Amino acid sequence: MKVSDILRVKGNTLYTVTPDEPLATAINVMAEKDIGSLVVMDHGELAGMLTFREVILCIVKNGGAVGNALVRTAMDDHPVTCTSETELDEIRRMMLDRHARYMPVMDRRMLMGVISFYDVAKAVVDSQNFENRMLKAYIRDWPGGEEQPSGPSL
Fold first, then answer.
1. Which residues contact 84 (CB under 8 A, 6 or more apart)?
2. Is residue 129 scored above 80 in pLDDT?
3. Which of 18, 76, 138, 144 has a Cα-to-Cα distance from 99 of 20 to 30 A?
4. Is 144 inside any structural domain?
5. Is 145 part of any domain?
6. Is 152 a member of any domain?
7. CA 17, 21, 23, 24 torsion: positive or negative?
8. What own/partner pairs with CB < 8 Å and gap ≥ 24 does 34-37 have?
9. What is the pTM of this model?
């Protein structure tokens, strides 16, 4: 399975901010949209990722307040990225190695989407469920949900 398979199911809605927007504005967007990350774009180019992890670190650094901080002071300016052709196993390894919960999907310099650790986990579970259904269908007379009588029929 590839990243393109996940994006096809997930859809292509993207939420972005610029590096010079107030961090408070970005936090409000994340709260309103119930999302854990925003892609930071600068003049049409990927500039970074802002996730709840970076927001919390910035707030702690500011003594518990957002203050007048800008997105650029909190964002990860070197996020790990992938392409639509990256295999799911490679994505899992990359996310685990970098402790990344969100990953921009790039086609050269163009942003194609963002996948989350949740998206990857869901794809794995869905794939395993499909495989289990196919295996059960392959095996003849697989027992159903009801118990079959074990004695001789009358």
1. 2, 3, 4, 7, 105, 107, 112
2. no
3. 18
4. no
5. no
6. no
7. negative
8. 36/101, 36/102, 36/116, 37/101, 37/102, 37/114, 37/116
9. 0.77
Token digits of residue 134: 């196919």
Q: What is the CA radius of gyration of the chain?
A: 22
Q: 32-86: per-residue pLDDT in tens?
A: 999 999 999 999 999 999 999 999 999 999 999 998 999 999 999 999 999 999 9
Does the structure show a pLDDT above 80 at 6? yes
Query: Which CATH number belongs to the domain containing residue 78 in this structure?
Result: 3.10.580.10
Q: Are 88 and 3 in contact (CB under 8 A)?
A: yes
Domain region containing 42: 3-138
Distance from C-alpha of 106 to C-alpha of 84, rounded to nearest angstrom = 7
Question: What is the C-alpha separation between 99 and 125, in angstroms, rounded?
Answer: 20
**Considering the domain boundaries, does residue 115 fall inside one?**
yes
Count of structural domains, the chain: 1
The pLDDT of residue 146 is 53
Q: Which of 33, 34, 32, 79 is nearest to 54 (CA)?
A: 79
